[in-house]
Design brief:
Elements: H1 9-14, E1 29-37, E2 48-53, E3 60-65, E4 71-75, E5 82-88, E6 92-93, E7 106-108, E8 114-115, E9 118-120, E10 124-133, E11 136-137, E12 142-147, E13 153-158, E14 174-180, E15 184-190, E16 196-205, E17 209-212, E18 215-216, E19 218-228, E20 239-244, E21 254-257, E22 263-270, E23 272-279, E24 285-287, E25 301-303, E26 309-315
Parallel strand pairs: 1-8, 1-9, 10-17, 10-18, 19-26
Antiparallel strand pairs: 1-4, 2-3, 2-5, 5-6, 5-7, 10-11, 10-14, 12-13, 12-15, 15-16, 19-22, 20-21, 20-23, 23-24, 23-25
């Protein structure tokens, strides 16, 4: 049976972090190579290649992936001359490094192409989850995975009753996908009658192992209200983000900006519980209903189909 893990607010917000740049296909090739399977010798297609800064382990400068013949190329349009560190799949650094810290620096020059060939066993991710339409399971829904940068369709499956799968006996409307770890994907669920919904609006980099993605139909409704300060004065130009709390990331984060009278409407949400995060124009932040700075005390607001919920006034206190 699938465990429905509730992610912390910080994890949900972390999915909005900036994505790495795609390797633009123009200019001379400055970095290239080929990947083969370490056990079979066969070429590895569709394996992510990420070029990192050599001074900051969190900065991805360019991304690409191998073709069917295992080859990859990065052009000068995506990668300026400099020193970098290169990761293949999700756990293989050049050369034979296990982490960014022990990876070998690679010098890229516009005058010549750096050649990096590698043999490895690629890390994979089992993406799994439940599909829901309104408030019930959604068996028979189509689940698509796309590369986040090119929007290329890379995998498709259908949700079903998994009574025949050990550990999933109680799961109706569930799905499984196997994808290369270390790449960034977008996920979409759709029906034969045209209903479509995206899980998240940013690319999610898959870690090795298992990763849960909840997929459901968004509600043509949302939350409305007003943001005020401690004196009850409307706060204009404040951001209001609706953060889902009853399913795992990647969340479909929707937001709105308050008008001159402090009012807002944020819609296009999944059905289910949400918290409302308010960010004032001066950077002041609060969760609606939160007391004593404890996020767990924030109010849960339920989004329903065809129902706009007025949450009333939310006070944004001065720091």
């Amino acid at each position: 049976m699938i465990r429905r893990n509730v992610r912390m607010l910080a994890i949900a917000l972390a999915s909005l972090l900036a994505l790495g740049l795609t390797a633009c296909d123009f200019g001379p090739v400055v970095l290239e190579g080929s990947l083969t399977h370490a056990e079979t010798g066969e070429p590895l297609g569709g394996i992510p290649v990420a070029v990192y800064s050599s001074t900051d382990e969190d900065v991805v400068v360019a991304r690409t992936r191998t073709d069917d013949d295992g080859s990859y190329r990065v052009h000068s349009g995506a990668l300026a001359a400099g020193t970098y560190r290169v990761r293949f799949s999700a756990a293989h650094w050049w050369q034979e490094g296990e982490t960014w810290s022990d990876a070998t620096d690679v010098v890229v020059s516009n005058g010549a192409s750096a050649q990096l060939d590698a043999s490895l066993v690629p890390a994979m991710t089992t993406v799994y989850g439940e599909t829901f339409f309104r408030v019930g399971p959604w068996p028979g829904a189509r689940v698509d995975a796309f590369h986040a940068d090119t929007k290329e369709l890379v995998a498709t499956t259908y949700s079903r009753d998994m009574a025949d799968v050990p550990g999933w006996e109680a799961c109706t409307g569930c799905y499984l996908l196997e994808l290369p770890a270390g790449d960034q994907y977008l996920f979409r669920v759709s029906s034969s009658w045209g209903t479509t919904s995206w899980a998240g609006n940013v690319g999610i980099e898959l870690p090795p192992g298992e990763f849960q993605v909840w997929l459901g139909q968004t509600a043509p409704s949302g939350f409305s209200g007003r943001i005020v300060d401690d004196d009850g004065t409307p706060v204009a130009a404040a951001r209001v983000l609706a953060i889902p709390t009853d399913y795992v990331q990647p969340p479909l984060l929707q937001e709105a900006t308050t008008s001159a009278d402090g009012r807002f409407f944020v819609g296009g949400l999944y059905t289910g519980d949400h918290r409302l995060l308010v960010v004032g124009p001066d950077g002041t932040t609060t969760l609606a209903g939160m007391t004593d700075g404890d996020p767990s005390t924030a109010t849960q607001f339920f989004a329903r189909f065809f129902e706009d919920v007025d949450v009333g006034d939310i006070t944004l206190s001065a720091p």
